[in-house]
Protein: DDT domain-containing protein
Organism: Aegilops tauschii subsp. strangulata
Amino acid sequence: QCRVVTPLVAEPADPGELPRWRLRCMWELASVLNFLQVFRPLLNIAVEFTAEELEDAILVPNGTLEYLHVPLLRSIPPVARMSMADGKWVTVLCRKLKDWWHLVAEGNLPIVASHGAEIETYKELEPATRLMILKAICDIRCEQEDVRIFVDSCLKKGYHLRDFCKERIGGDSHGISYWYDEDPILGHRLYREIRQVEYVKEQTRKSKRKGFLGVPVVSYQWETVATNFVEFEAAAEKLFSSSNRTEVSLGKKLKLNYLPEMEKTHKKKEKLLKKQQREALLLNSYLTFDRFTSGRSHRERKRVTYTFDDYDRSINEALKAIK
């Protein structure tokens, strides 16, 4: 049976944060982020974005989704001859999904090409559906030959399989696993996977009162425990203070192996943010001062020249005015 000792994630009280929280409760998001990290050298994605910026794009579609999907779609045969600008990449997306969906996903195809109407339809999809589509495209991209060649080449250079397959950093025998992901661009994340097993009682033919245990039903719960240094620090403290030895061990590992480097990065970001804020304040004060001192800017001013004739003329006019 699953045994969760220390609660780490709670449903947000602010309704505005619920969509992001629900997105982070899907393991597919962690899978997509890990895919982007591992195969970045191969994907030709020109624009850099953080995990939070990708979440923003999935919640409310923006240009980040285009920057991400277009290079992925171009690498999946057959090569699309039509332009992908102005949202037309969604049409290409629908055509790719039609051929591959049954191989990489379950259920009905969530979107189909419909004479351009699919562009607006994509924007109206639930964020969870957009994430599932992105996950499917990443899976399709993994099926391409250049990915296999890339992995083989890395292994020959001394890389290990664990560089491509995540290994859990902690857990217990009761169905709980912890996963850690780090990337200089996407950021750091800590996940917890909770495996639950339930047995359904079925009535026997001999007696309606008696029953037996049927086939076990397994379900999984996914939690994004921490996404920044403050959340990591709080999670490490809770785990370290737990009454469960496994959680204490993980809390200690987080404090010793992960938090020191994360703290350095956190301080650098804070320092950079403060610098940007100071520059913004200086710029704002300069513009305010300039508007204040230029209050008489509408008055007509005589153009200044520096020739001797103009200088002599100005002196003579001044002397005449005095007389």
User: Anything to note?
Assistant: The chain has two domains: 15-163, 172-200+228-284. The radius of gyration is 30 Å. The mean pLDDT is 86. Residues 172-200+228-284 form one domain.
